[in-house]
Amino acid sequence: MTFSGEFSANTPTRHGADKMPRPENERQSSEGRGALFSEAISFFTSVKTTVTLLFILAAASVVGTVVPQPASLEHFQRTASPFVFRLIALLDLHDLFRSWWFLGLLALLAVNLLACLIQRAPGIVTEWCTSSSKPLFMFSETDSGSPTEIKATIISAVRPLLGCAPTEVNGWRPVVLTWVKHRIHLLGFPLVHCSIVVILAGGLIGIIQGFKGHVSIKEGESGSTFTVIRTGEVRTLPFEIAVDRFTLTRYPSGEPKEYRSDVRLIENGKEVLAGPIVVNAPLTYHGISLYQADYRPVGVRAVELGLTGPAEKQEDFTLEPYMDAVLPGTEITARLLSVDPGSTKRGMGAELRVSVPGEEPRTIQVFESDSAAEKVGPLFIRFKGIRPLYSTGLQIGYDPGANLVWVGCGLLIGGFFITMFTNYRRLTIALEPENGHTLVKVSGNSRRLKAEFRTAVEDAVRGALRSNAGGTSPGKA
User: For residue 212, which of 194, 226, 222 has the smallest C-alpha distance?
Assistant: First the structure.
């Protein structure tokens, strides 16, 4: 079989094949992907999406307020019906603000706001840099004076309205005067949107990486391990908490007034921070905050005694457990053996071992309800009370996104301030010679009080032209 050196007219060459139309199914697939992408963009930049997400988040927050947060599933298994328990377990309602769907809604809201900002950004940049934005109003007037004569009159009339001098473009035709006031107003919208995105990002970081825990430490002791409140996991802090003293202040009625822990933070064997921790006044180190949460008595720190000498001089004395102490003004030694919290009608009391020089050591008991003091040598000893030994409960909080949230709050305040207290206004007046007269073309824009701005500009320009010696002719809008 032989082939001739010619191709049939119906045989497509490679060049012709490249120009052939794409198959119908490929074209439809491409159009479908384009339509899907366009719908996705519309969804993420839609105000309806924003409103819907905010409504769902608000409803979820109400649920999170009604349902105890956080709580164990075992608690709801015991207290709720089977259907409610399954619903709580499925949607993580026992830990709603850390649930997968709540975090997803926050992330979706952040993407929605960011998409809206990206969509509006080119227009804001264009309006900031140029005067090509569509004007709110336009009108024109004709005056018999020259552009040079009219320019000074118009500048004088418009100055009280905008409070700034115009920029001037000089050319052979026309003369263009442009006033721009409060250009910074254009930054209000992006600042507000950026701030909310930053706040959401900080909140997500805090929820995902942050934690809250609890630790109890006795006075005079230290500790570095704590229990995570949400999971019960035991973790270790990068420093030790040494509790030097716990102080409880009470009202005259006996109710607690203030409780305070004086602590030292020790890192790598060195003290790095010291200070008090009281309610609503935490101590923070490296982003980890220690809050005063609770307290409980775990023993006796000291016993308070009243001593009366031969000269009837009274003096208070504090005796700590398991320590021999010399009573003031004597050579008598005393040691606290035990404390009675009030198991008898004699009330609270203490058992002491006393040693008087020249006598055998003996044991005495003193109680708060005793009518007579206990005589030891030349002294009379009364029981006055005890100083409890407390274990202080500290809540440990770590939120790595807190600083980001504060930055977002600052941006939000700045954005609202700019939006509420500034008003972007642009006014352009072109003076163009035309048939022996001057054509005055006016265009302007205002973000707020638009009708008022237009009326004020019309009154100012037309009043200036009327005051001009050349007079005016009827203008057109």
Answer: 226
